[in-house]
Design a protein that fits this description.
single chain, Rossmann fold, 2 domains, 10 helices, binds adenosine-5'-diphosphate
Length: 214
Amino acid sequence: MQTPRGAHIGLTGGIGSGKSTVARLLVERGAALIDTDAIARSLALPGGAAIEAIREAFGSDVIDSSGGLDRARMRELVFADAQAKGRLEAILHPMIGLECNRQALAASGRTTVFDVPLLAESTHWRTRVDRVLVVDCSNETQVVRVMSRSGWTREAVLAVIAQQASRERRRACADAVIHNDGLTLDELAQHVDMLLAQWAPVEQSRRSSGARPT
Ligand code: ADP
């Protein structure tokens, strides 16, 4: 018999929404965290699994002297050639998927949180997980948080927000939304606890029936 797996939760949110903070709270409560951004970055580091395929697709120009992806050069390419982004994603996405599967298997039995910044932009992730959790807050809160966390200017934060999915689009794919505006960190933790308690019976019934929750 296969070991039952814990719920798979897709976690997303705009920059400064508090997504990483919620991820940390979930980990503190026993969840395994799979960070898709970190996986994508590590694939393109020197010696990373994607480096040779990237070199083949784009040439040695995009590989820096240490043998990793030259991100600045790649950004220029993507800016100049609309298809380059798709070609890079076609290399990275299957590898990210494989590594996610590997890490999810290693977490077997535990609730597993997939931190996916671009979840709302992809249909793949919504079908891959049992539940989608969106951390949401006003654009103004995002600006204030990122300015104080990272020392960015207001304009720089607004530019990133404009590139990301809108709050409406993100919320439209959510099974649950945590409104992280005007909450203390303790209150945010309470929301996470409530959500886990709310989802636990669903998880229990999924395990006993072997079915994916609806
Ligand atoms: P994201 O991962 O969505 O970019 P973070 O989780 O890093 O955002 O949060 C951005 C900043 O805001 C961090 O410094 C974090 O500590 C802070 N923060 C997030 N939520 C709250 C909250 N409810 N109360 C106080 N600070 C918060």
